[in-house]
């Protein structure tokens, strides 16, 4: 695509987002959180696109290329957000008394169901080639697999609603909700969280191979423009920004999450078609990316995701990274199949790598750590299996 | 320099006037957003937020307001009852309330749960409790300041009387009215479709009753009828006229009810505190009455549960 087309198109997207923001913020007290959600989603989209902040690709970079920068970016986001969340908790709930939880924070139930769902989610990432937040920003980059991953995820959500009640009876009803500050206080919880993140960072660095660094040319205006609008942002910068957006979004609206709206659309459609049980046990009282029967057209999460896609599209256009490629049958299968696992995992775990892992660990929730562990195990198993399959089929192909 | 005494006098006069308007405005059961905004520094005023949506208070409340959680602070969830006297007293003590404190409640959802709170305060003897007219919605619409810090007040030794004020109707009281043993007028403040028995619960709310309809003899005045577009109450004269039109003029005692007793607290507040009628709120409401075995109902639509 030529620059003469790209740049005006990007400007148009920015204008649409800006006008929508203005209209929403002027529409009274109800519109203000919606306006903020749109803006925060847009900021999130730009940061994801510019720094390629994607849970799966960052993990794969470490496993396949032994490049730790992406994983470090995630760990930085978790650390910055954990500090931000604790600052907010301290004013909202001055002492972490037992029996009280900070409002709306994603402190989810921990059970074997969460472990299983996180593992399946990890496998889904390896098959579809991304987590659930990435297809939204990749949509903005013209990814051909992303629409299928989103459709697959929607189907997976449907499957999740169907299996919710048996799994609830099996284990979720007896799940424990562990919030670290209840047991360690705010300081102890933050020290433990940062300590664990530091240990993981050390592990990632010790697994890595030294990466060659290109020589830095002198910083002139052209270089600055390239650094901001075209080249990939540094992992640490991306991580800090994701942590900051997460903190501000929790402060103003809700913990970050990208699946609530998708899940709500599926739940609303499925409920009206009577595909799901009319009662989903306990679902509406558990903490996480809540899916609700939709009664209003616009929701905070819906606008957040729209902002994410729009802003990532504009950002990709400016960087000339909007590059749809030819769609293959394998793309469709990987998208739908992997998406199905992602959707089922995200519904059953009450969120994905953003809602449960990121927003959970930042909030001091044990559920976030359980998701991290089992999702990484699932994804790594997927990556290694793919490697074995590739090796076996390589001689035949040759 | 020459002007100084005059200026001083003017300033003193202005202070006196603002003091006067403040006193005047807080005489009634409602306070205006302006009055409250001017009295946020007043140690003798304690503001409580009673919102039902999670995280609303924490993300911004009227500066200095204490959070009251309707689900845990104002009810006994195990007994399905009012908060116990001991717990209520402890709550007031840690909120720094004394017998002289002017108590102002407000909340989301048009003050429904704040009105429930006012009803509880009134039952426990704080009969001068006030509502912020228009609640949270009005305060936000005016763009007035919000705060996110949780306030802490020096604890007091206030005591709550054992004697409950008779503002609560129980199932037996309602049945006595239905069966003609006691004279009272019943007001159903739910929507007309709930009242007529066409639906079991409003949209988006779980159906908790297995019968549809209303208590025999109840008149239907949906709660919103007495509220302005901006969420504030209509004037006392307008409310009086709306109720007079359905034959309720305060000559007889009144019982208000809804689905779970919280929206009807809002109407209880208007009839009892704004108009001064003798009113009880039936907090068991339709989820108790409609589910009770062997009690009569009126169900004009004839909807039968489970009959598909």
What does this structure look like?
The complex is a heterodimer of chains A (398) and B (308). Chain A is an all-alpha fold and 398 residues long. Chain A has helices at residues 3-25, 31-51, 55-65, 69-92, 112-128, 134-140, 146-170, 180-207, 221-230, 235-252, 260-272, 300-318, 329-348, 353-362, 366-397, and strands at 109-110, 176-177. Chain A is built from 15 helices and 2 strands. In chain A, strands 1-2 form a two-stranded antiparallel sheet. Chain A is globular and about 55 Å long. With 308 residues, chain B is α/β, with parallel strands linked by helices. Chain B folds into 2 domains: 26-141, Oxidized Rhodanese, domain 1 (3-Layer(aba) Sandwich); 171-289, Rhodanese-like domain (Oxidized Rhodanese, domain 1, 3-Layer(aba) Sandwich). In chain B, the strands form 3 sheets. A 5-stranded parallel sheet of chain B has the order 1-7-6-2-3. Chain B has a 4-stranded parallel sheet with strand order 9-8-10-11, with helices on one face. Chain B is globular. Residues 15-25 of chain B have low confidence and may be disordered. Classes of the chains: A mainly alpha (398), B alpha/beta (308).
Strand order of the largest sheet of chain B: 1-7-6-2-3
Instruction: Note the main sheet of chain B.
Output: 5 strands, parallel
Q: How far apart lie the N and C ends of chain B?
A: 87 Å
State the assembly state of the protein chains.
heterodimer
Q: What structural class results from the helix and strand content of chain A?
A: mainly alpha
Strand content of chain A: under 5%
Can you give the mean pLDDT of chain A?
A: 92
Q: What's the β-strand tally of chain B?
A: 11
Q: Indicate the CATH architecture of the largest domain in chain B.
A: 3-Layer(aba) Sandwich
- SSE arrangement of chain B, N to C: HEHEEEEHEHEHHEHEHEHEH
Q: Which pair of protein chains has the largest interface, and what are the residue counts? A: A-B, 15 and 14 residues
Structural class of chain B: alpha/beta
CATH classification class of the largest domain in chain B: Alpha Beta
What count of domains describes the coordinates of chain B? 2
SSE sequence of chain A, one letter per element: HHHHEHHHEHHHHHHHH
Percent strand of chain B equals 5-15%
Mean pLDDT of chain B: 91
Number of strands of chain A: 2
């Amino acid at each position: 695509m030529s620059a003469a087309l790209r740049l005006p198109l990007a400007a148009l997207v920015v204008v649409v987002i800006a006008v929508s923001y203005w209209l929403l913020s002027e529409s009274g007290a109800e519109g203000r959180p919606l306006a903020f959600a749109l803006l925060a989603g847009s900021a999130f989209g730009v940061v994801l696109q510019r720094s390629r902040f994607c849970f799966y690709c960052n993990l794969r970079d470490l496993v396949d290329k032994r490049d730790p920068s992406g994983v470090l970016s995630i760990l930085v986001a978790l650390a910055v957000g954990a500090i931000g969340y604790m600052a907010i908790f301290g004013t909202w709930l001055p002492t972490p008394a037992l029996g009280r939880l900070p409002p709306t924070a994603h402190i989810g139930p921990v059970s074997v169901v969460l472990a299983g769902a996180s593992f399946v989610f990890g496998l889904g990432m390896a098959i579809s080639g991304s987590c659930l937040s990435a297809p939204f920003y990749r949509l903005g980059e013209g990814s051909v697999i992303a629409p299928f991953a989103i459709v697959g995820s929607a189907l997976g959500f449907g499957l999740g609603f169907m299996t919710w009640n048996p799994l609830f009876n099996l284990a979720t009803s007896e799940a424990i909700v562990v919030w670290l500050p209840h047991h360690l206080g705010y300081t102890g919880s933050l020290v433990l969280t940062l300590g664990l993140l530091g240990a993981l960072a050390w592990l990632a660095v010790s697994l890595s191979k030294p990466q060659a660094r290109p020589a830095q040319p002198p910083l002139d205006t052209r270089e600055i423009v390239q650094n901001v609008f075209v080249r990939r942002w540094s992992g640490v910068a991306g991580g800090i920004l994701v942590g900051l957006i997460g903190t501000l979004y929790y402060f103003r609206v809700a913990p970050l999450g990208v699946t609530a709206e998708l899940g709500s659309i599926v739940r609303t459609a499925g409920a009206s078609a009577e595909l799901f049980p009319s009662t989903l046990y306990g679902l509406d009282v558990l903490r996480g990316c809540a899916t609700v029967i939709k009664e209003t057209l616009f929701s905070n999460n819906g606008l957040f995701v729209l902002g994410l896609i729009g802003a990532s599209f504009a950002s990709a256009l400016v960087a000339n990274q909007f590059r749809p490629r030819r769609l293959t049958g394998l793309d469709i299968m990987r998208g739908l199949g992997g998406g199905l696992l992602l959707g089922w995992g995200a519904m059953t775990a009450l969120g994905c790598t953003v809602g449960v892992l990121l927003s959970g660990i930042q909030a001091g929730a044990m559920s976030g750590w359980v998701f991290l562990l089992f999702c990484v195990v699932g994804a790594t198993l997927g990556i290694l299996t793919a490697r074995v399959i590739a090796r076996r089929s390589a001689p035949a192909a040759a | 320099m020459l002007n100084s005494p005059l200026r001083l006098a003017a300033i003193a006069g202005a202070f006196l006037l603002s003091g006067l308007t403040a006193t005047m405005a807080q005489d009634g059961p409602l306070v205006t957003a302006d009055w409250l905004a001017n009295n946020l520094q007043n140690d003798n005023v304690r503001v409580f937020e009673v919102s039902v949506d999670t995280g609303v208070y924490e993300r911004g409340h009227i500066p200095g307001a204490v959070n009251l959680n309707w689900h845990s602070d104002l009810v006994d969830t195990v007994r399905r009852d009012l908060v116990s006297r001991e717990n209520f007293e402890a709550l007031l003590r840690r909120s720094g309330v004394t017998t002289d404190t002017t108590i102002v409640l407000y909340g989301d959802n048009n003050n429904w749960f704040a009105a429930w709170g006012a009803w509880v305060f009134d039952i426990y003897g704080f009969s001068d409790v006030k509502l912020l007219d228009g609640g949270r919605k009005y305060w936000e619409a005016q763009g007035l300041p919000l705060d996110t810090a949780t306030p802490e007040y020096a604890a007091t030794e206030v005591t709550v009387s054992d004697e409950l004020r008779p503002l609560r109707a129980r199932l037996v009281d309602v049945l006595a009215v239905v069966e003609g043993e006691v004279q009272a007028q019943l007001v159903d403040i739910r929507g007309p479709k709930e009242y007529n028995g066409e639906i079991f619960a409003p949209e988006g709310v779980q159906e908790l009753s297995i019968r549809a309809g209303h208590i025999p003899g109840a008149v239907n005045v949906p709660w919103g009828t007495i509220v302005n577009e901006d969420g504030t109450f209509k004037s006392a004269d307008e409310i009086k006229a709306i109720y007079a039109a359905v034959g309720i003029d305060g000559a007889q005692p009144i019982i208000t009810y809804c689905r779970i007793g919280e929206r009807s607290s809002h109407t209880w507040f208007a009839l009892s505190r704004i108009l001064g009628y003798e009113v009880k709120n039936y907090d068991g409401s339709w989820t108790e009455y409609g589910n009770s075995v062997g009690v009569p109902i009126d169900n004009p639509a004839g909807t039968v549960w489970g009959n598909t």
